[in-house]
Amino acid sequence: MKIVEVLTEYGTLALDRSFSYLYDGKKRIGERYRVRISFGPQRVVGFVLRLIETAKSQEELEKEKGFSFKTLKEEDILDEEPLLDDSLLSLAKEVASYYFSPLICVLQTMLPPSLSPRNSTLKAPKIAYEKWVRLLDRSEEGLTDKQIELLRLVALRGPILKKEAGSASILGKLIEKRKVEIYLEEKHRLKLKEEEREQAHVLSELQEAAYRYLLESEKAVNLLEGVTGSGKTEVYLHLAERYLEQGKGVLLLVPEINLTPALMDYCLRRFGKKVAILHSGLSGAERYDEYRRIASGEARVVVGARSAVFSPIKNLGLIILDEEHVESYKQDNAPFYHAREVAIMRAKNEKAKLVLGSATPTLETRARALKGVYGYTTMKKRVNEKPLPKTTIVDLTDRHNFGKQSEKISLPLLNKIQEKLEKHEQVLLLLNRRGYWTGVECPRCGYIFVCPKCAGNMTYHKEDNMLKCHHCGHVELYPECCPKCGYTKLRRIGYGTERVVKEIKDLFPKAKVARMDSDIGKVSHQAETILRDFRDGKYDILVGTQMIAKGHDFPLLTLSAVVLADIGLALPTYRASERTFELIAQAVGRSGRSAKEGEAVIQTFNPRNYAIVYGAKQDYESFFITEMKERKIAQYPPYTYLILLNFSSKKEEKCDKAAMDFKKDLQAKNFENVTLLGPLVPYFSLENGKYRRSLLLKYKKREVLEEYLRDLLKRFSSVAGVRISINVDPLDY
Ligand code: ADP
Ligand code: ZN
Question: Disulfide-capable partner of 275 in 34, 288, 301, 478 (CB 3.0 to 4.6 Å)?
Answer without folding.
Answer: 301
